[in-house]
Amino acid sequence: MATPGPGEYFSIGSHVSCLTCLGQRLQGEVIAFDYQTKMLTLKCTPSSGKPNLSDVVLVNLAYVSDVDVITDCTGTPPPLASLNFNKLTNRARAEKEDKLSQAYAISAGVSPEGQQLFQTIHKTIKDCKWQEKNIVVMEDVVITPPYRVDNCRGKEGSALGHVRKIVEKHLRDLESQKSVQRAQQTQKDSALSA
């Protein structure tokens, strides 16, 4: 393979600006570049606006019409950050368990409302699982179909009260979403009939 010419290689730490074939301007620091596949990885300012975060963008240079090197870094790139493999392994295991739980709910014939409620509870309380079509929270509270506040069973106490509040809020949020959707549909129907 021929040696890359000028403008065909990007040093780690350099700042570049790219214009994609869609007219989008991307600007950031080069954190990786693969010459064979022409893939460029940029660390860009965060779209979230949070100063301690960055967006990482993969750019296929085959779909870029213009690349400008703003500042070229000629020094040795900084060493790679060490990875916490235990943390990564635990995160992967937890994600796998979540996906298996979702798959179980679908295969068990749980209603979409039940699946949504499970996801809502799981965001707050990680210790929840499926037991057939029932949601079991902290081994103390069981929520049976049709997944309403009245369907929460368990020992009276803070756990049951907390879960009931989560279910109440979830149902209120669903109802307000449905109201907004109905209003939007009514507006669309009125606009179409006019």
UniProtKB/TrEMBL annotation:
This is LSM12 anticodon-binding domain-containing protein. Residues 177-194 have a biased composition (Polar residues). GO terms for molecular function: RNA binding. InterPro entries: AD, Lsm12-like, LSM12_ABD, LSM12_LSM, Sm. Residues 81-175 form the AD domain. SMART domains: AD. It comes from Electrophorus voltai. The lineage of its organism: Eukaryota, Metazoa, Chordata, Craniata, Vertebrata. Residues 3-73 form the Sm domain. Pfam families: AD, LSM12_LSM. Residues 175-194 are annotated as: Disordered. Belongs to the LSM12 family. It comes from the Eukaryota.
